[in-house]
Amino acid sequence: MSPLWRDEIAIYLGPRKLALVRRARGLKPRVVAATELAVSAGTFGDIGPVLARLADVLIEPTWHGAAARAVVADHSWARYGIVPWPATRLDAKGRLTHARFVLGDTYGEAVADWAVSLADTPPGHSYVACAMPATLRSALEDTLAPARLALVSLQPQLIVAFNAWRHRLPADDTWFVRVDDGSLSAVHLSNGAWDRVHMARLSPDWSAELERLQAFARLTAAAGAPGRMFVDAPAWMRRGAGAIAGLEWLEEGAGDGAKAHELALLQRMSS
Predict the structure, then answer these.
(1) How far is CA 217 from CA 157, 196, 254, 269, in A?
(2) pLDDT by residue (tens digit) across 99-139?
């Protein structure tokens, strides 16, 4: 079968949640299977439990023989840095070294041995660096191999969600916020590019973190009122935070929560 016509499986890996969507390719691509499962033994930072749960699911022939695109939760397995364009000309290796320095300055030794990727950026502009555990890709590939799944993409949740909603976001002075049941990731846009990233673990009173982010936006606004803040969150969170003024919710349809949030993200990604 031609790679252009091969089915794709989108996989979401979170510390406490796993979701899969299979999309049949062809003249009329369509979703043919979807599931979301809890990872009862999952903990933040440990990829083992969710990969073990994935291995159990992949025993089913429904998920065999396809290209796999994986999305991983941000707070557990991704760190971001905004890297200023260097004053002196650097080759690709030098830019990577510079990015590692910026990430290390922010996160310390915790990311020293992580794999770092750089976003494509026009010359003269700051660029986004993303670090992920170096062993994550190989561990995932080993889990996928028995089901004849070829890993063609591995991305953190914030980047996938941002790309899915980018058409709805103004290019300047805008916050895009992604919230799930355990963490918050936010990026600020200026002239169409990322210039700030904020990440936080959420307490049971998770709405307080949104209010803190709003206060931060007011303090860091260049002049006048802070920019708009768009929030991508599950329907039950949207209902619970209805009293917070100044938020613009990114909703699918009526936003009734009938479709699980991670499944909706995977389906937008694969459409």
Answers:
(1) 22, 11, 28, 29
(2) 999 999 999 998 999 999 998 888 888 999 999 999 999 99
